[in-house]
Design a protein that fits this description.
With 391 residues, the chain is an alpha+beta fold. It is 42% helix and 13% strand. The longest helix has 33 residues. It binds the ligand Nc1nc2c(c(=O)[nH]1)N[C@H]1C(S)=C(S)[C@@H](COP(=O)(O)O)O[C@H]1N2 and molybdenum atom.
Amino acid sequence: MRHTSRKHSPVASLRRGPLAPDAFKSKLHSQRLASILGISLGVTFSICFITGLLSDAAQNAPLWSWWPARPAGLYRITQGLHIATGIASIPLLLAKLWTVYPRLWAWPPVEGVLHAVERITLIPLVAGSIFLLFSGVWNIALWYPWGFFFPTAHYWTSWITIGALVVHIGAKATIARRALGRSSDHLLQPIDSGLTRRGFLGAVTASAALLTLTTAGQTWRALNPLGLLAPLRPDQGPQGFPVFRSAQAAGVTKKARDAGYRLRVEGAVSTPLALSLEDLRALPQRQATLPITCVNGWSADVRWKGVSVAEVLRRAGAPADVEITVESFEAGGAFSSSHINGAQAQDPDTLLALEANGDPLHIDHGFPVRLIGPNRPGVTNTKWVEKLVVQ
Ligand SMILES: Nc1nc2c(c(=O)[nH]1)N[C@H]1C(S)=C(S)[C@@H](COP(=O)(O)O)O[C@H]1N2
Ligand SMILES: [Mo]
């Protein structure tokens, strides 16, 4: 008798507006639709999470030591998947939230301890998902609007969100299985607006596909012409590929043009080196076509030419598989140094590049010397290199 009589119970009299039992009539608020969207999001979030962890591992201690040098284009694929699944998740998430939001007013609000826990974990799940997707898009569109706050916040929020997602899947698996087990006939039922559930799902899938394809033009040449939403084209910029930060923005123009430039090789070496640009040009030159793959999603194939890091190590009397810190003469900033791990140091295609696409390196691409190597995230391909410090 607790909530059954709307006339007499004082609790029942609270059930007005969205709390009324018949407040939401649209059949789009169905468990079946919620389950289909939920499973799709489960897939896109999982791929996005794993590829995000790989991207972190490729860049940050302690895992960067194990990131392989081959296949050379691996990071381009994992990061492409990261961006594509993140973008596809946006319409899926909005549709899912719209489908299930009447549950916010579920009555009674809490049915027990487990139910309370499940409902509370919705806060980090929903807030975390929204933060991840929208901060990711801002990052793609505006580069790094928050400096290094972005990767750290994006990384830790992803762990919280995935934790909440695991709880959510555990709580909803049975309901979803039951909802999906039912006949699919009522997917076709017309609803108030005339939109069927199948039509709704179709529209959501189409927007996810469209958003993904129009952004994927950043990295996938065949889709370039479709890259309407891509913030930049991978074939535009000096020497035919984009510039993330120009020499002027980095404040290195004067030092880059200084005739007294020397590349120094220091640390655990038997012969420290100080090589002028002429010295570097006189060393054996190696060519390699390698992509530059920015974490933001764009990538471009470039024909590089320069001196193998392995060759320089040999001349400095250092072992082949050492770890190296690379320093730019760009002062400060998050991008002014990077690491080369043992596998990358040994790889002959890890280059101190002097040329790109057949011409001397443009100053905005890192003249006089930039680092480039197989399977390295864009941000680790340090420009305006001044020093290699062997560990
Ligand atoms: N010294 C220095 N190196 C740098 C950067 C920078 O800002 N400063 N940007 C990095 C990033 S984030 C990317 S994606 C690539 C971009 O290379 P490009 O400008 O030659 O296309 O360089 C990397 N190397
Ligand atoms: Mo980048």
